[in-house]
Amino acid sequence: MTASETSPSSDFIRAAIAEDLKSGRYQLVHTRFPPEPNGYLHIGHAKAIAIDFGVAAEFGGLCNLRYDDTNPVKEDVEYVDSIKEDIRWLGFDWNSREFYASDYFEELYEFAVQLIKKGKAYVDDQSAEKVRLNRGTLTEPGVASPYRDRSVAENLDLFERMRRGEFPDGARVLRAKIDMASGNLNLRDPVMYRILHNPPHHRTGEKWCIYPMYDFAHGQSDSIEGITHSLCSLEYEDHRPLYDWFVSELGIYAPRQIEFARLNLSYTVLSKRLLRRLVSDGYVRGWDDPRMPTLSGLRRRGYTAESIRTFCDRIGVSKVDSTVDIALLEHCLREDLNKRAPRVMGVLRPLRVVIENYPEDKVEGLDAVNNPEDPAAGARKVPFSRVLYIERDDFREVPPPKYYRLAPGREVRLRYAYFVKCVGVVKDEQTGEVVELRCTYDPETLGGSAPDGRKVKSTIHWVSAAHAVPAEVRLYDRLFATENPNVAPEGEGFLSNLNPNSIEVLADCYVEPALAGALPGFLCQFERQGYFCVDPDSTPAKLAFNRSVQLRDEWAKIESKAAAAS
RNA sequence: UGGGGGAUCGUCUAGCGGUAGGACAGCAGACUCUGGAUCUGCAUGCCGUGGUUCGAAUCCACGUCCCCCAGCCA
User: Fold this and answer.
1) CA of A386 and C1' of B68: distance in angstroms?
2) Span A85-98, mean pLDDT?
């Protein structure tokens, strides 16, 4: 373990909090993770969760889970449930501190009344369109609403009637009276409450027909919960003056907001709106499609919580707009799985091999190590017999330069078994396709080496045909073909950057019998190929695997360089 | 052009007036019953221009570029 892993990280947020504790501005640390239940959590949220919960834990404080559920039009219990599941899976715990902005609706309403009484809020009858027009532009000040100077009594009466449901959606809003000329648009009399008769709220049902805007709910919710540090993303920087204004006008406890850059990942979109589009329009199978950057998708793909937490630690925290290379995420998974995933042999594109000099009905159980990185993982027996399957790609009729594997006349080692030499190639008479290899084995080479000292340049994996378990394997590639999917050609959207080959399903694979009955979620390494995870689609009759991530592949590099050179 | 932020290897990120470091990616090699893992080495960076200073990524000035904000979304 290195120093950077043992000593507390020194990003600007932790430094600021340490300073606040030292100066006495706050005596403790209490953060919160505040999702809106309008979609599934993704890897970007994992960063926020790791910061919110991580910072609290490091300073011996607490972190609440609070749903900012102020817009019933977009929210649903399906999302609140999935969010809880994902946070728990990641390994964080809010104990009993599960809150909802909707828990505070009554209090928030009283806050609004308080501001009306102070002459700091008013009911505006203008249409949404009118409000927008009168807000001004980036360079021109806004125009005051003709209703801005209504009496406190009239405002009180109107607001109460809004609550009682006397007005239709959009008829009126409650606005803060701040400054229509402010350079900060958020301060040009922002809307505090709007009327929404439908649909019912997932928690408060039909009780309310007016709902606070996020900006009027968030800061006060933090205040009510006694949050010391409200950590959020950069786009809320210019909302901070507004939150401070509310808290100050209301005379309530003030948290400190600190903003950090949200995560961007190459070849990925991380926006709930865009991810929802992929789901609703059927570009993926659902929120948990293994190609999705959602936590449920990554989990199904085979990502471990540990690897995602490591990733979040490594990317750091700063205020710079940044895009992390997805290769780092993949690296974190490999690193984790290398230590813990049992090795097995699985043949993805089978090529039949007959060992001519191996007895017809003989079967040997050969010893195979489960994980060379972990002696405690033990060993297993793998059945070997006369007819095997090897990987199609491990044979070339005309081997290119630097290709070490099987070819006519060449000898290789079958992992944990024998040296075999290719002595014949059987082809389909019609297509010319190689359908079978005839090989001979050297009985003296069991254990991996030849008594005469001869070497082979390569070891390949295999499964015994008679013992093989059939399986389906899904190979995934990045969902988008371009590094930044948000940059699309004129007139086209991010969908035009979708990678048409993001999934390849191999229906006729074979895996070694040790895998029979493996349960969904089971993770293993198919030697020489990658890490694979049993998918929930598996049935007792047929296993289905997802490729979580490929192993690093030197040969693939050599080959693609050769292809590029020619 | 109003307001708010930000610029350090290809990508993330350290640095807080005293030799610009780490990780990923890349390249080269060693080792290997996984062309895996591991190990070794290499290359690449302070947005620009002035100034202060013995000494500047760091302090100051002036520029330049990038991001966010005109939802009754969050």
Assistant:
1) 66
2) 98
